[in-house]
Amino acid sequence: MTRSISILGATGSVGASTLDLVRRNRGEWQVAALTAHSNVADLSRLAREFEAEVAVIADERHYDALKDALAGSGIEAAAGRKALCEAASRKVDIVMAAIVGCAGLGPVMAAIEQGTTVALANKEALVSAGEVMTAAVAKHGARLLPVDSEHNAIFQCLQGGRMEEVRTITLTASGGPLRTWTKEQLDKATPAQAIAHPNWDMGAKISVDSASMFNKGLELIEAHHLFPVGLDRIRIVVHPQSVIHSMVEYRDGSTLAQLGPSDMRVPIASCLAYPARMETPMDPLDLAAIGELTFHAPDEERFPATRLAREAAQAGGAAPAVLNAANEVAVAAFLGGNIPFSRIALMVERILTETELPSPPRTLEEVLRVDEDARMRASAMLEHC
Ligand code: NAD
Ligand code: MG
Q1: DSSP readout, 263-307?
Q2: The last residue of a domain, from among 117, 146, 175
Q3: What is the chain's alpha carbon radius of gyration, rounded to the nearest angstrom?
């Protein structure tokens, strides 16, 4: 029996890993929508290869180019934010939400409103919308399957017990490429150094987040919404080998962990096949060859991001959306060579503490307004850097 899938952010790193699995099981999948921001060449090539029903380019200026690139294929071409949401709300068995940033929130909500199963990689959407998204999931009978490797690990470990029997959840963190750097060295880290992740091959934004530990901060908030065990029961441990992807400890003292290669195709496969398992081209786990698994506590002096995220999660309301928006602006500024690496966390902290927080958003529109407003404040702050 074939299943249908739409992939939001098809030209990115998670998009490519998802399409790799679909390609290996071509006869089992029917591709409905594929979307991208502005890369017409890749989007049209993928749409043709996977015989998609519709290809959507978010940046409207590329509509004519997409239409030309798809001419004669019978594939519908569309452009713009509205088209992105329409594509996300097509009836399919599963939507892969792999857009980066809060830009993916509207489409994710559109899929949820159809009661669709959403494989969620786009953590910024859940961090920003929090309760608005989880309430919509409940209201529309949708389902979120976590793609993020840590959350997917926890999701798998939770099959071994009940939520009310969980004592703690531990998110593992690789620590990123700058893990051992001193404060002085961190000040001088370049975008190329921050992106050079030792274990994972990912998009630029999440790679910088990984280097700053904002990725783990966002994941803490993500876990808080996906697994309601209470913020004080969610821990973070640095584990540079990235073999254990996260753990769940139960009240009887048993800790279940999920182990595997640092390859996003593993958690993606777990979502695509859920609740079954599918074949992937992974080498068997060879612990003897790996030799050592090490762990240490995060250093919040050098990497304040996890503290800031915990504080934002504790404050609740608009705080996580503000944290996320400020981080997105700061990361873009760092990647553009406009601010030093350590200014990212400083900027986020200043936006959170020096400006008055808006009232808690209750609808998608209100979340988007909080996001927009925090972006404006962060951009204004950049001008004075
Ligand atoms: P990426 O930069 O490689 O790809 C992002 C995709 O989103 C691209 O297809 C791009 O065209 C699209 N996009 C970007 N901006 C957009 C916009 N404004 N409107 C519409 N589309 C837009 O990113 P990625 O590494 O694949 O990450 C995607 C998401 O998955 C992120 O939220 C990230 O945190 C999460 N994630 C990624 C990994 C990983 O290994 N890459 C692991 C866990 C979670
Ligand atoms: Mg992760």
Answers
A1: -THHHHHHHHHTTS-----PPPP-HHHH-----B---TTT-THHH
A2: 146
A3: 20
- Find tokens 């959407």 and name the residue: 125
In a domain, 306, yes or no: no
- pTM equals 0.98
Residue 348's alpha-carbon distances to 15, 312, 383, in angstroms, are 28, 11, 15
Binding-site positions for NADPH:
11-14, 39, 122, 124, 203
Question: Residue 274's pLDDT is what?
Answer: 98
What is the spatial distance between Cα 245 and Cα 268, in angstroms, rounded to a whole number? Answer: 14
Ligand nearest 242 Cα, by number?
2
CA distance 60 to 56: 9
At 330 the pLDDT is 98
Residue 148 CA to ligand 2 center (angstroms) comes to 5
Query: For residue 25, is it within any domain?
Result: yes
Q: Could you list the residues known to form a binding site, using ranges.
A: 11-14, 39, 122-124, 148-150, 174, 197, 203, 210, 215-216, 219
Q: CA 308 to CA 257: how far, in whole Å?
A: 27
Residue 384 has pLDDT above 80, yes or no: no
**Total structural domains in the chain?**
2
Residue to probe by mutation, ligand 1, list 202, 221, 271, 328, most atoms within 8 Å of CB: 202
* Ligand nearest to the Cα of 219, by number: 2
What would the 3-class secondary structure string for 218-240 be?
HHHHHHHHHCCCCHHHEEEEECC
| Beta strands per DSSP E along 114-215 | 117-120, 143-146, 166-173
Structure tokens at 352: 């959170």
Q: How many CA atoms lie within 13 A of 225 on its CB side?
A: 28
The ipTM, to two decimals, is: 0.99
Domain membership flag for residue 283: no
User: By residue range, what is the domain housing residue 78?
Assistant: 3-146
Which of 98, 121, 146 terminates a domain? The answer is 146
Asked whether residue 367 is domain-assigned, the answer is yes
The contacts of residue 217 (CB under 8 Å, 6+ apart) are 305, 306, 308, 309, 310, 323
The greatest distance separating any two alpha carbons of the chain, rounded to the nearest whole angstrom, comes to: 62
Give the residues across from 169 on adjacent strands: 234, 248
